[in-house]
Amino acid sequence: MDPALVTYFQEQLEGHYRADMMLGPHDLIGTVSAQYELIDRLVRVAQGETRFGLLRVGAAYGALVGWLYQDAGDMGAAAFWRGVTQEIALRARDPHLIGYSLVNHAQVRTDLGDGHGVVDLCQAALEDSRSVAPKVRVMALQQQAHGASLLGDRKSVDALLDEAAGLVPRIDDELPWGNACRRTPVYLEVQRATCYGRLGLGADANRLWQQVFDDVPTTARRDRGVYLARHAVAAAVAQEPEQAVDISAQAVRIAVETGSARMRRELGVFARTMRQWADTTVGRELEEVLAPVQTRG
Q1: What pLDDT score was predicted for residue 180?
Q2: pLDDT at 26 over 90
Q3: What distance in Å separates the CA atoms of residue 288 and residue 283, rounded to the nearest whole number?
Q4: What is the number of other CB atoms lying within 10 angstroms of the CB of residue 116?
Q5: Which of 2, 38, 179, 235 has an alpha carbon within 20 to 30 A of 62's alpha carbon?
Q6: What is the architecture of the domain spanning 96-183?
Q7: What pTM was computed for the model?
Q8: Which tens digit of pLDDT belongs to each residue from 218-255?
Q9: Where are the alpha helices (DSSP H) in the chain?
Q10: How far apart are CA 219 and CA 266, in angstroms?
């Protein structure tokens, strides 16, 4: 089997990552999962280093399918594909991929609100930190910070994200997956703002979101929409309802265009946060803004 197939699938993967930022999950799940199935068939007949190369790239495809299902709101399918990713990473005997697969599982636990589960998985990924690339350590540390925020531990959030920031300049691998921390200059500050919002630190989170948006690529539409929804929540917690409604209107437009269940979930949190203004002019304006996504407070 021609080893160039591994390169072909790696190049296709980068294109899928770019498309995910622009399109959202529903338009990509079928395409990416079909390519994974092709890779799986090829792995069964490939030999030597070509086989291990296909396993490594197959794990990355499995992780992306899992992420797409998670973004679409199908947590059962997301957990299944996270398991597929971990199985292939173990078969490939690749410590970087094994760590990456554990962080993928932790992402699901974050969306399920299981702080202890997130911390356990990230600590497992970091157990032998010398064997994994700095990028994997950055991913595990920032995800563990999300787990700490679910547990109400701001001190750990800041310590974990500060440690991750010190590792970012050391990222120099050629691994085709997990490159959000390189694509987005304010990647870790986005995580910090998200954690602060989850901790109920509205003013701090609002201030951080205002700082980071100039550096979030406009091409990352789906991520930008999620960040806008989180920013709206932070503004509401900071008692800035007019600002919150203005921000949420931008998020609603992107949610409708991409079909992201994550974004709709974030807007649901926003709607509940805004209940105190339900009988005001701002509250009535909010009803009109959220109508296209049929969010129920």
Answers
A1: 84
A2: no
A3: 9
A4: 11
A5: 2
A6: Alpha Horseshoe (1.25)
A7: 0.88
A8: 777 888 899 999 999 999 999 999 999 999 999 999 99
A9: 4-23, 29-43, 48-71, 75-92, 95-111, 115-125, 134-150, 154-167, 180-183, 187-198, 202-212, 221-237, 241-258, 261-273, 281-290
A10: 20
